[in-house]
Amino acid sequence: MYVPTMPAQGLSETVMVNYDKALKYLGGFGPWQKRVYLVACIPAILNAFQTMGIVFIAAEPDFSCRMPDVNYTGLNATAAEIRNITTPWEKNEGEWKHSQCSRYSYNFSAADLNTTYSGFVERFPVANRTKIRCDQGYVYDYSQFENTVVTQWDVVCDYKWQVNMIQSVWMAGLMFGSFFGGHAADIWGRRPVLLFLLVVQFLFAMASAFSPNFTVLTAFRFIMASACMIIFEIPFVIGAELVSPEKRTLVGMILMMYWAVGYVLLAGIAYFIRTWMWLQIVITMPYILLISFWWLIPESPRWLISRNRHSEAKVIVEKGAKVAKVTLPDDVFYDDVPLTKADQNASERKLYTFVDLFRTPNLRKWTLNLFFNWAVNSLVYYGISLNTAAFHGNLYLNFAISGLVEIPAYLISIYLLDKFGRRWPLSLMMVIGGIACIIAFFVPKNLSWLTITLAMTGKFCITATFAIIYVFSAEIFPTVVRQVGMGMGAMMARVGGIVAPFVDLLGVYWAPLPYVIFGGTSVAAGLLALLLPETVGMELPATIEDGENFGKKGVITEEDKETGL
User: Fold this and answer.
1) How far is 332 from 339, CA to CA, in rounded Å?
2) pTM score > 0.85 for this model?
3) How far is residue 425's CA from residue 417's CA, in Å, rounded to a whole number?
4) How far apart are CA 47 and CA 286, in angstroms?
């Protein structure tokens, strides 16, 4: 049983918590950390709902122009013949199809309708017909969706870009959140910012279900995305600060697993709820349950210590010791040096900015290379994920498979990092994923299983590279600019996400073009990754000079570690 300690003789009477010492007793990822972190990751499931829900909320069913109220029965024509004289033919994806955005307009009299179909065609040959944009609205196929924002507000044809815009605005919101969220959590604490934003997310996500128009919905989703980004980051930060350094990669993978679970669950929820407003309400309601975080999630002890709030940190660590059923010695709570010497001297260091990433030649080219890989990774990931509806086959099954492949992808990335290093796994996965994306959209439509297999291969590879590029970047950037570099990398990823929906619009000119771009940039990024230095087993760079010379030093062997060389 844990018994609260009092300072032993010779120790400071002022509470000075040393969390690194506490970890020796609590465990690197012990029972208490697991209890806190596995609960803290739950918002990642709901984040997947809100981020990927747009696939169903803004789904575009089959549609055509609504025609004027004209009675063609006098022509004794079939339904197909009537469509031929009301709707133009257009070549789309190499096939001739009836236009979805145009119709024929006639200036005819009643006598023109009291003839045969052949007589009408002779009277109004195709060359003499006037083709106009749909001016009477649209008729939608409601066999798959009862209602989406597309069908409710006619966001098709000349307004289709708005669907891509709402996706890009979401990515812009993520960028906004990543820029300001870290500062808010550093100033006011991880727990209060997380709880506040969960409330904000609930309110605006619920309000979005009752949006009066597409513009308001887009504005709400920007705010939702900003909150989503911080809600996703804070659990990772809490986990990383609770566990020992060697467990931080595992902590990141667990959070990604929660996201993947939410991804898959969304497919099932959307299958049973085919109205966009009710789907939005249902995927938002679980936020109410997260009010329990007030009692379940503690503040990060490390953050409290950094703010010199040692007494509060002591209470939390003591509760952790009770859960872990360990006894903490006096020097954990009454230590003269609460953090490492490096942490104590942090305030004396020079202030570095993102400009320092570009001051020296080698570090500059590695930084640009990594930023390109971050951007391409996000471009391809969201390009595939948000366009599942473009794949042949069942939308809901395809979407569920797209989420399922992420789970083994995250697991295999851990193995690849340990077994083969960073550079070659990143390069090969990016190249293989890119080639799979390009080939997928040249497969004949009757081989839908092959298209899905190739697309999911690309998704698998891109998902795995996300984990790899995250670790790789953290090891290449020198310590003095590591946080800056990682933050800039995350922002570049958001740029890729913003661009992805607009790349999809290029399919109007040539259907496979978006995936040629996704695949081509992925292959290019994979080849460029070979120019990066391998980091596995290497001593991490600390200064800008170390970063410039990184890769020229030898591998740190176990013998070196033992001899202190």
Assistant:
1) 11
2) no
3) 8
4) 11
